[in-house]
Amino acid sequence: MKIRRITAVAATLAASALVLSACETPETEGGSGITEDTALSVAWNQSFYEYNDDSATGNATANAIILYMMNSGFTYYDGDLNLAQDTSFGTYEKTSDDPLTVEYTVDDDSAWSDGTPVDAADMLLFWAAMSGHFNTATFDSDDDGVTVYPEDHEDAGEPVPEDVLANQVFFNATNPNMTEIESMTVSEDGKSVTAVYASPFADWELNVGMGVPAHVVAMHALDIEDPMEAKQALIDAVEGEDASVLAPIADFWNTGFQFGDVLPDDESLYLSSGPYLMTDFVRDQYVTLEANPDYTGDLQPKVETIIVRYFADPMAAVQALENGEVHLIQPQASSDTLQALEGLGDGFDVITGDGATYEHVDLMFANGGPFDPATYGGDEETALAVRQAFLKLIPRQDIVDRVVAPLNPEATVRSSFNAIPGAPNYDMLVEANQMDTAFPLEIDREGAAQLLEDAGVETPVEVRFLTASDNPRRMDQLALITESVEADGLFAINDVSSAEWGSMLADPSQYDASMFGWQSTSTSILNSRSTFETGGGNNFGGFSDARVDELWAEIAVTPDFDQQSEYLAEIESILVENAFGASLYQHPSITGYNTDLQNVSSIQVSPTMFWNYWEWETTLTQDDIVEGEGEEGEGDS
């Protein structure tokens, strides 16, 4: 799955109490709290593949859950979704309301695992990369690359000098909430930054993270050997807005942390600032995390070794749990999965509930495909008619009845882009957006045919459809969609699904429609802003609407929930009117585990069952883990 983020949510001190074990407790190492020689194996359904989970390609739960256990930060969500702080890592304080000013300070003991301090340079890079303030180039879907727009060379036909081309800056994952920060100033001691906002911002407390190590990026990008010298070079480049230095920094930030098939030889590409170190990795098989002996923060884990293994097939994960290959799983939810877990008997337990992910179909607005006005000579109405016709044929109710209802008989179609069923503003948003009228749950064949006939579009319209090729549930859903949209010859599905669908989303030239799950990292009402705002990092389809952008800006400065919901209702209405896409259902959640593991729970935002890994307790050791290689993971939850 992909992650809907406001920032990367980092782990900090747990607010909940520890539960003491009734069995004899082995001795622990030093004062660390680690139970010596303990080991756990945990299953997930998509392989880790990139250390930078803020980049356009790395924004996925599969990466975030690993990094959550490796790297520290200012905040995290507890078991009741309250925002807690890790003051052992650092502190933050609002120092002014006009203008909104927030000071962040990293603790003197916080350090990366190579010994380099975590400090202001790391926060400055995070802001520079995520704000988009320093970008002088933009992604061009037609050329599958970066197109530059130099201010001094706008005359048609005038060639752009090579030195200008070489100095174009492009960080590939702009977060619209970070653009609210107008400036960020580094303190003299290099441990603090002061963020000044252009206007009031309702969710300021969630808006600054750490990201990748600044010294690593600058050392590689600028060929500097000394880490502190590299940090200073980065600070100087940001403060001086030096494009010649920021351009290579951005290039490395975008792609330098992408993993191959095994652990990189360069250890700087997977540093830790938190409780665990990555010590081994084989793509699509496993990641091994070992307790960080140099970690001094409050978030002290008890398990010495955590191995995350990958199983795309949920029943294979259940089998691995039964066999002892893994001790904790959160597989794709289905009635078969639940029945199999409940049938494991003594020694195993199951937790069920609402999940953090929702399923949806999105359409591409600016890729030269069937839903793009450019395909019809710029005719917006024709492109809109084709989008509307396609969405009228998505069998939303049938998908829920055949995929979700066997697991949860009370399951319903989700009909909001921004709220989960049962949320305080859900019914109001659904009534306002009229999604169920525009795209009826039982489909509207006559309406779809009439739209295409009136638009004069030749049928069948070919639609390249992208989803996870090695996820059986997804392929079943695509089969239902294909049967429905092709039934009257109005559309023809070209299945371009792939196991690498997650990294393909950022390349709009490869598909016209997609189906996957968004998982939230925050309870913020701005959580989905980057999906629907012009240029947002999660807005893969190129949707753009000036009024929607204005409304998000209003929500950002509005503290009142009812008023925020009214703005959201207008946003949702515009999304439906423009046939952005359609939401399908909220994922149910199933967590199964070996009862030798204690203190397991799950929350409704990423990182779900990993949220309190430091509370996990077990007497299991490496000898208790049955050897297994997992299987290739597909990338959703």
TrEMBL record:
Span of domain Solute-binding protein family: 94-539
Assigned keywords, A-Z: Signal, Transport
Subcellular location: Cell envelope
Annotated TM spans: none
Cleaved signal peptide residues: 1-22
InterPro entries for the chain: Peptide/Ni-bd, SBP_5, SBP_5_dom
Gene Ontology molecular function, alphabetical: peptide transmembrane transporter activity
One Pfam short name: SBP_bac_5
Any one GO biological process: peptide transport
One GO term describing the cellular component: cell envelope
Family in the record: Belongs to the bacterial solute-binding protein 5 family.
PANTHER family per the UniProt record, alphabetical: PERIPLASMIC BINDING COMPONENT OF ABC TRANSPORTER (PTHR30290), PERIPLASMIC OLIGOPEPTIDE-BINDING PROTEIN-RELATED (PTHR30290:SF10)
Protein's UniProt name: Peptide/nickel transport system substrate-binding protein
Source organism of this protein record: Ruania alba
